[in-house]
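Hi Y.,

Following your request, here is the sequence exactly as I used it, all 465 residues.
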Amino acid sequence: MSKVATRFAPSPTGALHIGGVRTALFNWLFSKNKKGTFHLRIEDTDKERSKEEHKVQIIKSLKWIGIEHDGEEYIQSQKIEDHIKIANELLKNGNAYKCYCSAEEIEEQKKRARQKKMPYIYNRKWRDTDEKDAPKDIKPVIRFKSKIEGNSQVKDLVQGNVEIENNTIEDFIILRNDGTPTYNLSATVDDHQMGMTHIIRGDDHKINTFKQIQIYQAMGWDVPEFAHIPLIHTIEGKKLSKRDNASTLDDYSKIGIMPDALRNYLLRLGWSYQDKEIFNLEESIHCFNLEGIGKSPSKLDMSRILSMNEYYIKTINEKDLYKNLIEYCEIYKEKIQNHKETKVKSSLSFLKNKAKTLEDIYNNAKFILNDEIKFNKDDLKLIDDKAKKIIDEFSNKLSSIKELNKENLEPLVNNLIKTNEINFKGVGQPIRIALTGSKFGPGLYDIVIALGKEESLKRLAKITS
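Below is the corresponding structure, written out as tokens. Let me know if you'd prefer a different format.
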């Protein structure tokens, strides 16, 4: 058998959908596991809706999650002449015919099918009708001459043997009356010319597979192997669409989901390998197989994505975590200033506590990043005279500390609790508000150490002045 070659073939008519990303991932992993190649085909024949910016976003999104295609991307619109040529060959060898039905005739057939509550199938009126009887004022479409007798079977690498009665596949159009090819013709010709050995795609393409196999057979081409992946559903069990929230990669990256975590989640969405949950890139490639894909739809679960992301935040190397944070802030928040980098980097161990996303880490780090404190109005009301007295006392003691660490800060705070006859909250809350602008946030000692003595004293003095 020739070297494995797979492809992902999105249309650049919008942002890349999360279901498409998983399809691309499965194709890419399968190829890499088999030491084959993975190709990107841009199906841009819908001229009105296809945009260059969407193409750029698709390539960027795939790269972000770790999927890079081999060779140049294959642009479908540049191959239209090849598609038309094959349509004419099919016409010439008797596997296609010209259909002169008017739009009104077709609409009438569809209407009758609706009335009978049956799926519409073109009635094959021009399949065996002599062209000399054709109306002169109608530009014909070219239809493929589908099999009428018997059954067809596909050995699906995910679903098993799938069978269909041939008479349920209509004589589908391969060339419209304006001379443009349709999806099933273009996709088949492209897959053949690209040398694709395996077509791995969503199971909503099953009927297309039967149509495309007939084109392969009519042209005498080698038929690739097919695998149909169950679709992704919402948590309510409905088919996930582009209109759903959190349906594109951008929806995830902008809230601070890391690419490795999302890739791991998508890998496990409908695929399993023993009882393993966490896969690095090398393990994903090594372990991936089509046998591990389930036959039922998977549900996209945001809480599970956040949980996976939290696991990665807690366990990955802090140098890698910081790199992710820097990139995230540059795109979605603000660039971390050079003189703040050391403080943020050394504080990551506590900034990542309870953080499920990079956005959480950014929010936790705001007290370091912002020189000007923005106070929560309700929290500011808690700074009464008693609170100001505690802040003053804390400042006085802090200024005499030579080395800033938890061992030196803890007895200082404990002494304030004792002398003021209050609990830890009574001391910690006003100091935290003075230093960060909010009563919520990281631990008190972590805040003071992260800011340093000079900055802490400056902030404390501001609130009591």
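The chain has 19 helices and twelve strands.

Thanks again,
Q.
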